[in-house]
Amino acid sequence: MSQAHPAYDALTERHGRLHRLAHLQSLAHWDQAAFMPPGGNDARTAALTELAGLLHRQRTDEAIGPLLAQAAQEPLDDWARANLREMQRDWQLATALPAALVERRSLAVSRCGQAWRQQRPANDWAGFLENFRPVLAVAREEARLLAERSGLSPYDALLDQYEPGMTRAGVKKVFDEVRQWLPGLIQAAVARQAAQPPLIEARGPFPVEAQRRLSEQVMHLLGFDFNAGRLDVSAHPFTGGVPEDVRMTTRFNEADFLSALMGTVHETGHGRYEQNLPREWLGQPVALARSMALHESQSLFFEMQLGSHPGFAALLAPMLAQAFGAQPAFEPANLQRLMTRVQPGRIRVEADEVTYPAHILLRFDIEQALIDGTAQAEDIPALWDAGMRELLGIDTRGNYQDGPMQDVHWPEGLFGYFPCYSLGAMYAAQWFAALRRAMPDVDERIARGELAPVFDWLKQSIWQQGSRWTTRELTERISGEPLNPAHFKAHLEARYLG
Amino acid sequence: MSQAHPAYDALTERHGRLHRLAHLQSLAHWDQAAFMPPGGNDARTAALTELAGLLHRQRTDEAIGPLLAQAAQEPLDDWARANLREMQRDWQLATALPAALVERRSLAVSRCGQAWRQQRPANDWAGFLENFRPVLAVAREEARLLAERSGLSPYDALLDQYEPGMTRAGVKKVFDEVRQWLPGLIQAAVARQAAQPPLIEARGPFPVEAQRRLSEQVMHLLGFDFNAGRLDVSAHPFTGGVPEDVRMTTRFNEADFLSALMGTVHETGHGRYEQNLPREWLGQPVALARSMALHESQSLFFEMQLGSHPGFAALLAPMLAQAFGAQPAFEPANLQRLMTRVQPGRIRVEADEVTYPAHILLRFDIEQALIDGTAQAEDIPALWDAGMRELLGIDTRGNYQDGPMQDVHWPEGLFGYFPCYSLGAMYAAQWFAALRRAMPDVDERIARGELAPVFDWLKQSIWQQGSRWTTRELTERISGEPLNPAHFKAHLEARYLG
């Protein structure tokens, strides 16, 4: 870019500043979930609220509108043009919300999210409801204001924050299809697994320290850069921090090594995406991950496509024997069966990939009703129990901690996020199908432990693209077609019925 | 305060905002020392530099000068008047330095401080010097600008930041006295200890996990509130965080349990001071700890007056037996002798209280010369070696990591801080003498494990006072006289020669 573009340059400088301040925000959120003692919460909430307000004022500065208009007339190369598109999007989202609402939102979700950390283990739905009502109220107001600005419906406006270009109708079309075949597929997979020779269960306990070392070993195998990130523990596993310093968390259950192991593989997918975003654009919106579904497509590619692959189980087997002592359960074929056991259960993050979409369908139904106002916060348990009975045939009555209180999303005000998980699973299957076309021996390579070509393909195709393309453009560039859930169905059928 | 004071109110609002943003700064510094992977340093440095600049702009906003002048005319109660005095001090310090210098300083010390974490273990003085020269240059410039504003000399201006009201001449007067009697006292104490029956050494190794549990147990005994703080590990132990969430660090040496134990006792003194600052004023300058020497007076009260007290050794003994298994070395009288062994050595933070002042005299001499410009960065090793030979009779040549590279202060640009440690030791002795007058059976109480009255006295006398009084006023209120090093000498003579 040899030509002059002063307005665009002024905007990049502003976004660099925002990025540096957001670093501190991200760190404080990570610490709040992973390390902060409960007594520190009020001060942390106040600090984060202050920073949220400050960032919001900077993102909505009145100079930005004219700069955006002027930059649109300047000579820009393709990356810069994409960066400007993302800047416009940021401006649109930020200016839709008044500062007072942003601060109120930050306060409400910080309070609710933190109290949830104690209330969930206590199964305290009534206590949770007290803090959750204001979160829902502010989310509805946010949805209404975002909708006014964008012309979308309120739920679509929330969804669009996480998944630009996706709508409720688009999700519904795909999910309605899944609703058709999912119950049958679950039944068939369960029946098929029941007919196989008995599984050999792993015998615990699995000491936390051994699990932690194993997690780090697996992260190494998956290419996580420990010079630019770390693994810690939190109630709800997540990946936070910044691309230069990715903070992953997991949680350890001494009775079940698979929970932390698969969780770690999942979060490592997020972590590697962040660590490999385009460095030369870091700090600019175009260097951000494309969308939440794309992010989940990476974690689910790692967890489901790669991590639950028979070839990968063979790589894990000796590590498990080293960590916990050899036992028959760790024989590769048995291990892969353990990792792909289909079993309707209460917990989303521990669900197998076949029953997983049911958890998302349920949440998608409930959160639409919450935002539309056709359901209230106190209606959630009844909706939850009915949905779980219908979708997975299980009884969840009275168990809030493993029911509507299990996830951090709603307590933290994230409505419209859940669909991204299943969209992500679909994208992941679509990527693996594209990878197999580009690299026909990929399955043998994985079995031989040659993972580098897989990561290189992801890096070139997705990670290094940042937000250079829209999700649809990117999907078509990688796979030659837009999102197509048939790949997901084919993947499940091949693995569970084939 | 029923009368109106709009200017004062506007100032308190601004300081509340600064406090909330400084929370994030403090957290990011703690994480940088305790958890951050090396690859995250550039981004962290950039983020902290951005925030330092932002805070500086807020602290020097042109509206503040007129508000301070107007508030001085408003009806204020005593605490508010003291708060205004501290606001004026903050304004004076902040406006003395241009924003560009503050950002340059933040950048230089962040780089140097982080590189030091690798360079120190590698004994890489040449590498360190590269980063340290810009730190020294910026410190000299800072000193010159602060001096211009305050009318103090450059070194006094630096010292005044940490120890308001104290001057080089004031320190020199006290330290010159110490220089007279210290060598003789060290010799006499060493000779007396050599003449005693042989010490029973503790037999290690002392596993890190057992040390960590012991540290937390001792913090409990010392009243640390784990609901509002935590203990982690860093290369150089420190106490950071915020009063509502105090982040203490220590480091564990498996060959020597006393190092982490005494370090933890020391930092807990800092931690309790922070945790007990006046809550109703939190966020305002008057709620800050009075000064660095006062802060050190609390850590050294904990470590030396209380922690090395024969009665306290009797409380520790069963905890040690539980942590590491019973052994003859943990017998209370022997344990107290281990804790009070006088032994000239290279490391300041591991020095006994008798040789400790020698470490400070050395640093005080060198840093004055560095700031005056009569010595350069590359002269430090020679000055160091000569001083250590003269003051403690030890040979430090070629060992930079346990020599001038051992402390984080200079790499982080803190010149004028070191004297506060020995001033703190003197205040601590003066406080204990005052406590003994107020509570003649304090020694028996400590031996019985009745520590609450000691903490209550500290809380009322010092912690809850925040910056309500000047250091001199506070000293006189507590002890009936200004700083008097005779108490420190008397304490050492009683314990080591008595």
From TrEMBL, chains A, B:
Catalytic activity reported: Release of a C-terminal amino acid with broad specificity, except for -Pro
EC number, UniProt record: 3.4.17.19
Which EC class, in a word?
hydrolase
Which InterPro entries does its entry note?
Answer: Peptidase_M32_Taq (IPR001333)
Q: Which UniProt keywords apply?
A: Carboxypeptidase, Hydrolase, Metal-binding, Metalloprotease, Protease
- A Pfam family that this protein carries is Peptidase_M32
MF terms (GO), sorted A to Z: carboxypeptidase activity
The family line of this record is: Belongs to the peptidase M32 family.
What this chain does, per the entry, is described as: Broad specificity carboxypetidase that releases amino acids sequentially from the C-terminus, including neutral, aromatic, polar and basic residues.
Q: What is this protein called?
A: Metal-dependent carboxypeptidase
Provenance organism: Ideonella oryzae
